[in-house]
Each structure stands twice: as C-alpha cells, then as structure tokens.
Amino acid sequence: MSLSGLTVPPRIAPVALVRHLALPVAIVLVFALFGALQPAMLSEANLVNILKQSALFFFVAAAQLMVLITRGFDLSVGANISLVSVVSSMVMTGLVSTLGAPVAIAAGIATGIGIGGLIGAINGFFVAIVGINAFVVTLATMSVIGGIATTVSGGFPIFNLPEGFGWAFNQARWLILPAPVMLAALVGLGLHFVLSGTVHGRVLYILGDSPQAAHVAGRRVRAHHFFAYVWAGVLAAMAGLLMTAQTGSGEPNLGTSVVLTSVAAAVVGGASLRGGTGTVLAPILGALLITALSVGMNLEQINGALQPVVVGVILVVGAGLDAWRNARQG
Predict the structure, then answer these.
(1) Where are the beta strands (DSSP E) in 101-216?
(2) Does residue 330 lie within any of the structural domains?
(3) Longest dimension (CA), the chain
(4) Is residue 62 a part of any domain in this protein?
(5) What are the per-10-residue average pLDDT scores of the chain (330 residues)?
(6) Cα–Cα dist 277/87, whole Å
(7) Which of 25, 52, 117, 240 has its CA 20 to 30 A from that of 42?
(8) Cα-flanking dihedrals φ and ψ of residue 7, to 5°?
(9) What are the CB-based long-range contacts (under 8 Å, 24+) for 212-219?
(10) What is the pTM of this model?
(11) Which phi and psi (to 5°) does residue 184 adopt?
(12) Which one, of 115, 248, 282, 232, lies nearest residue 169 by Cα?
C-alpha cells in the first residue's frame, strides 16, 4: 500500500507475530532465569558447551523433522545412534594399528553413515513402499537394532578410539566455531535448501498435507517418501558419530534417551504431528531450548528424574500449539 509516495509494509497479524516469537523469547527467558540462579549458566565455557550439546541434538531432531513433515516419525533413531556408535568404534579400533589413524577414522565414519542409511532404507521400504504404519515399522526396527548393538558389543563400551577422532569432531574449532556447531550449521543450510528449494522438499510437504497423494501419483512420490526415512537414518548416524567423538567410546546405550526428546524438540520448534509443516528452524530452536533447560537443571542440581517430566510437558505443549494452529487455519 502507498501513502504520499511511501511504501507501507503489510501488517503482520499479532497472532502470527506472537507465534513466531514465542520460542525465541522462551529460550531467552530460560537463559535469563537460570543465569540469575546460577551465574555459571552464562559463562563463556558453559555457553560453548550448550552450543555443542545443541548441535549434537540438532541432528536427531532434524532426523525427526524429515519424517514428521510426511506425517510420520522414527522411533528407531536412538537405536540407530547406539549401533552406529558401537560398530564405527569397532571398525576404528580394529584398523588403527594396521592402517593408521586417518584411514581408520575415515573407515569408521563411512561405516557409520552407511549403517544409518541402511536403517533408514529399511524403514522407508516398509513405510513408503509396502505401506505399513510408521509406528509399527520403526518400533520393530528400534527393538531389532537395539538388540544388535548390545549383542555385537557384548553390552560393554568400546574404548581406545583414535585420539584424532575425538579431537577433530569434538574439541577442534573449524574456522571460529566448535566442530559440532560448524557441522550442524552446514547440514542445516543443506536441509534448508533441500526442503525449500527442491522438488523433493516440496513433495515431502505435499505428502504431509495429503497422504493420499502417494496413491494418486504412484511410484515417484513413494520414492520421495522412502528417501525421507533414508535422510532420517543418515542424520541420526551423524549424531551417533559426533556423540561417540564426545564420549570417546562406542556406547551400546548411547541413544536410549533421545527418541522422545527429539520428537519434542522438532514439534515445539514448529513441526507438526499432522505433517506438512516445519522448517529447519524447528530442530535448531527446539534443540537449543531443551539443551538449555537440561543444562540449567543440572547446574541447579534438580533431580535428574524430573528432566523426562519436563520433556514430556514440552511435547504436550508443542502438540497443543500444533492443534491450536491447525484449528485456526481450519
């Protein structure tokens, strides 16, 4: 609209403005609250730690985002992380003495990514091609993969990883950012491009809006649906590799607690359980909120048993906001 030669920007509806600013404001309030209670919360070292932890968690939440957009979800991400952690660690420790650390690390990373992609492909085949409910499929693969992770490791951690692995992917700075944060930033940019600038991304959103589209459009749309689960598997594998670099060992239970929190992070960040919505900001903001809450509660020495309660509340709040948004749009 023009007034006396000046262009007046369109008004932003107050409800929409509140909806977009609510989560960033909530994150600021969390930092302010715990910073007032524990000054260490706002120390440089702790802020770097929160960024690193959020970056690791971003990958798991992003994995959920890819399938939530299609009106699905992936219960196997935690078991995926555990299996990748164990097997990639076994590959690295098995090869380092004969082929050297660089080759062993590269082989371990390739193995981990390959395992994640394979798990995603199995999920995608049964969900997108065969047509079995995502809950049933990923619950089954969660059980099977978790059992394999425990079996191949004997239930014990895998130690003696090459020192360069932990340094390069956890302690080092890439340019000015910690390695996990830089990796998360690069992957986030890639996901943003895929979701907003490619046919593949547009089809995923259409699948979430109208699941019947797969039956109408046929094989090509089902292939896009299939690859949503492959990307989820790869992203979870990347989380497993980075978490392994952080812990310094392959852990058969590394991903046990991330399933609910990854869904909560994606949903509270703006993804919808009904499918069809959500951008890369969802796992970024959701991961930051949950990580800040967790670190703040730890600094306050709040009983760790209460943290899953907080995550559950966040999931309910996110689902409630999602239902409210859909009711307004309807």
Answers:
(1) 173-174, 177-178
(2) no
(3) 77
(4) yes
(5) 44 55 90 95 96 97 97 96 98 96 98 98 96 96 97 95 96 94 97 95 90 66 94 98 97 93 91 90 94 92 80 80 67
(6) 35
(7) 240
(8) -90, 125
(9) 214/128
(10) 0.91
(11) -60, -40
(12) 248
